[in-house]
Amino acid sequence: MPFYETIHIRPQTQLHLWKIEEPLDSLIAGVPLQDHSLIRLHKLKSEVHQKGFLAVRHLLQHLGFSDADLLYDASGKPHLSHGQHISISHSHGFAAVAISNENLGLDVEAMRPKVLKIAPRFMDVDTHLSGLSLAEQLQKATIIWSIKEAVFKIKNEKGISYPSHIREQPFDPAEGSTVARLDFKHQTELFPVQFIQREDYIFVCVFES
Ligand SMILES: CC(C)(COP(=O)(O)OP(=O)(O)OC[C@H]1O[C@@H](n2cnc3c(N)ncnc32)[C@H](O)[C@@H]1OP(=O)(O)O)[C@@H](O)C(=O)NCCC(=O)NCCS
User: Fold this and answer.
1) Which parts of the sequence belong to the 4'-phosphopantetheinyl transferase N-terminal domain (predicted)?
2) Three-state secondary structure along the chain?
3) Does residue 203's CB lie within 6 angstroms of at least one atom of ligand 1?
4) For the chain, what is the mean pLDDT?
5) Where do the CATH 3.90.470.20 domains begin and end in the chain?
6) Residue whose CA lies nearest to ligand 1 atom number 10
7) Is the CB of 161 inside a 6 Å radius of any atom of ligand 1?
8) Which of 38, 140, 146, 200 is deepest in the core (most CB within 10 A)?
9) In this model, does residue 71 exceed pLDDT 90?
């Protein structure tokens, strides 16, 4: 299945989803790539990553952009040549791009039980998971992991620790929003967070303001 959905996360922010179901060959055939993108594609070791990389190009094509409109800075952060902000994420079955007038971070994660095993290493388990069923814990821990990845994509600074520097206000997943707080280098910043679930995947957008 190709293009899946566009979600209007905010008035100036659209989240576009591609469900990755095509074989690698048909993803490669369907999208023209610049030389440096071809080199990157061939350096990606896993087929899952290659498919994600290509599905993002298909999404851009669907939106009227091309691979040539996508530029990367030295840290690997993507930018659109015409000036709007973009954030990219892919995870097994889905690729997603968020395009906005605001600086933002996007993360997509599949809800997998492994997240509960590692949760104490990246989040405050007592605050967020106590009293929840196993299914609710899985959903919430995945949202929180994604929030931290998305905050990292906005800030893009070495030294940010997920458990020590990024915290989330207590939230009910049914509300689809919360606020993340970054305490780093003697500064505190607040980031509005919007999230949705599609199938077994969590999609999180974090905004700079
Ligand atoms: C950069 C990072 C957030 C990417 O997350 P991921 O889950 O591995 O992969 P995703 O699919 O969600 O995102 C990949 C996309 O992020 C974008 N990206 C890569 N580096 C980026 C950066 N520095 N800033 C913003 N976006 C970045 C790219 O567009 C990339 O996809 P593409 O290269 O195919 O275009 C992650 O690799 C990372 O480095 N996290 C920090 C880890 C960390 O500090 N952990 C501390 C634990 S205590």
Assistant:
1) 54-100
2) CCEEEEEEEECCEEEEEEECCCCHHHHHHCCCCCHHHHHHHHHCCCHHHHHHHHHHHHHHHHCCCCHHHEEECCCCCEEECCCCEEEEEEECCEEEEEEECCCEEEEEEECCCHHHHHHHHHCCHHHHHCCCCHHHHHHHHHHHHHHHHHHHHHHCCCCCCHHHHEEECCCCHHHCEEEEEEEECCEEEEEEEEEEEECCEEEEEEECC
3) no
4) 96
5) 3-102
6) 89
7) yes
8) 146
9) yes
